[in-house]
Design brief:
With 233 residues, this protein is an alpha+beta fold. It has a single domain, classed as Bira Bifunctional Protein, Domain 2 (BirA Bifunctional Protein, domain 2). It is 27% helix and 25% strand. It is built from seven helices and eleven strands. Strands 1-2-6-10-9-8-7 form a seven-stranded mixed β-sheet, sandwiched between helices. Helix 1 crosses helix 7. The chain is globular, with a radius of gyration of 17 Å. It starts with a strand and ends in a 5-residue tail after the last strand. 30% of the residues are buried. It holds the Pfam family LplA-B_cat. InterPro entries: aa-tRNA-synth_II/BPL/LPL (IPR045864), BPL_LPL_catalytic (IPR004143), Lipoate-ligase_2_inactive (IPR053264). This is BPL/LPL catalytic domain-containing protein.
């Protein structure tokens, strides 16, 4: 499912519906979401968000249904999500096994660059360009990634330096820790074409429409994804 300009809140709600109500395998690719800050299911706003900056520059604050850390997203973020039935892929439904599978999926796209999976991040060398989060149920698993085609340093001020962070990051600021995919891939359309080529190598593809996702989202299911509203000081 290739999406364009779909807000991340809407995308996450569709993903939650696909995980909880369907039995087949899905991949969603989206780019062009308006700016937002997205927290994992157990993330604490007071620990992870720079509230002084947030109150001065409010944008949507969203809690997703999956684990993982806090990310700032905007029009230059590319989202790639896999939602799979455990019995249909030869992958043990455990976080590290899923991460290793995705590393193998992405590696041929960057044959001449220092791409690797570092702890739970996609990196070039020691700089992160991709954050990941997962949700695993009895028979299904979801792995979604936010890939920085580019990023605005000012927006990174929404985030506090988390107490729990990758060991390889140490105490580096966002500017020293992050990198942009545009510095390694010359064309965003070409990058997305390479994603599709990798999918075609792994799966038999059927393209779906937004109407399909809208209909699936109406099937009764458990809802966790929501926007967070804070009282302004």
């Amino acid at each position: 499912m290739q999406l364009k300009n779909v807000p991340i809140l809407t995308q996450l709600k569709w993903e939650e519906a696909l995980l909880r109500t369907k039995h087949d395998n899905w991949c969603l690719i989206n780019q062009g979401s308006p700016p937002a800050v997205v927290l994992g299911i157990s993330g604490r706003v007071d620990e992870l968000i720079n509230l002084n900056y947030f109150y001065q520059n409010p944008i949507p604050l969203i809690r997703r249904f999956s684990g993982g850390g806090t990310v700032v997203v905007d029009e230059n973020t590319i989202f790639v999500t896999f939602i799979c039935h455990a019995s249909q892929l030869s992958i043990s439904p455990f976080p590290q096994h899923i991460m290793q599978w995705t590393e193998e999926f992405y590696r041929p796209i960057f044959p001449t660059h220092p791409f690797q999976l570092k702890e739970n991040d996609y990196v070039m060398g020691l700089r992160k360009f991709g954050g990941n989060a997962q949700s695993i149920t009895k028979n299904r698993w979801l792995h979604h990634s936010s890939l920085l085609w580019d990023f605005c340093y000012d927006k990174m001020q929404y985030l506090s330096l988390p107490k729990k962070r990758p060991h390889y990051r140490k105490d580096r600021s966002h500017l020293d820790f992050l990198c942009s995919l545009k510095d390694f891939c010359s064309d965003q359309s070409k990058f997305q074409d390479q994603l599709l080529n990798r999918l075609e190598q792994k799966f038999s593809l059927k393209h779906c429409s937004i109407n399909d996702l809208k209909e699936i989202s109406q099937i009764p299911h458990r809802h966790i994804t929501q926007e967070i509203f804070l009282d302004f000081l």
